[in-house]
Write a structure and sequence with these properties.
- The chain is of the alpha+beta class.
- The protein has 9 helices and 5 strands.
- Strands 1, 2, 3, 4 and 5 form a 5-stranded mixed β-sheet that branches.
- It is globular and about 55 Å long.
Amino acid sequence: TLNNYLLEGDYDIVLFNTVLYYGANDKKILIDNLEPGFYSGVDLVKNSLIKNVPISACNKIYRLNLLRSFEFAFPVGLWYEDTVTINLFSCCEKIRKISEQLYFYRQRSGSITKEFSTRLLERYSVFSLVQAHLQSQSDEYANYLKLFYGKVFLLETLNNVFLYADRRKDREKVDIVIKNIKKLPETLLLKQNYLALPFSKQV
């Protein structure tokens, strides 16, 4: 059983593979790039920030004492709240990744990953919670947080906008989302760094 994995190595967390499941045609896609093996909390934080492992609370089992000692809780009422599990990883000492495919994430219309709303901006609220915690832990996460902002917040939010927003009905809401993204300090820093690149690298 999964519990045996926790007990046999005294691990804080055991991870297993995540598979996107498309029930209509029984199609399955593995989306986990983290190799089976043994990791530290720092390792898992970094792999999560660059999305080698899906950011989800559902593809792992946790030692109860870890949750209690960290006094872990999800932010109430926010979309993408399980992103803050990254904060929990930074408190771990021993983590194991196993090769079994045990989390099947059914893909369906109507989920928050496949709809447009101004609540997409709540991604930034959750990102800020992760950023504040990791910055208090170590300076070594700084560049990883920049990648995390660009790949997880910026690109995925824009992806939701362009794929799922109704160009006529949602025009005002789209403007709100885009204006908010443009004025965020991390977006301004990305723009500044991009413009500082030689033209050949910009292209």
